[in-house]
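Anyone able to model this chain together with heme C?
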Amino acid sequence: MNRFRIISLAVLAVTFVALPTSFAEDVDTTKATPPSVAEARVRARLLHEMVHGALQVMHRDFFDEEESHAIPSRSLEDVFVELQRGHRVSVRWISVNTNAMNVDNEPQSLFEKAAAKQLAQGKPEHDAVDQGRYQYAGAIRLSSRCLKCHVPNRTSTDSRTAGLIISMPVAEEK
Ligand code: HEC
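re: yes, here you go
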């Protein structure tokens, strides 16, 4: 993996936490009310964990070994484990309108199945609160260079979509 791709992955990784929908033009997060100091600290800690973890896995899997065959989504899953352990934020991939490359990534819960339907229709995100948990699904664009593996026998070059599910406990709203 060359440096450009490593940097692209870093930018993508940061985007997951900072602006999960920044690939989606119709969601403008810049006009949102600024967060409280406490909220900003939580966001900063999460971003730190994500960037720190992503940097470690990139060096481990893509930089030291020039002939590495690591799969980026899989490497990032090691960072997801840390986000769960240190921040109680659960993160996982889902397939949306392709067959899952890994069957473990098929949508499982009712929320994930509903989210996959929404993202397949072109929505950039979908969220819900249920039983003290906030659940968020953001679209991951599978452009044509991704599809040679993700949809090997495709008949069109249209982009497809996968998803990233992020969920965490929240205080119940009264
Ligand atoms: C060389 C083949 C290849 C290419 C090219 C590729 N992927 Fe994948 N991708 C895989 C494999 C294999 C997995 C399954 C990893 C695992 O075992 O968890 C996967 C899994 C994923 C997943 C998890 C969902 C699923 O279907 O299992 C996402 C998201 C993903 N890739 C995104 C991308 C994106 C975005 C691109 C293009 C920028 C891309 N991939 C290009 C091989 C590829």
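The CA atoms of residues 95 and 103 lie 9 Å apart.
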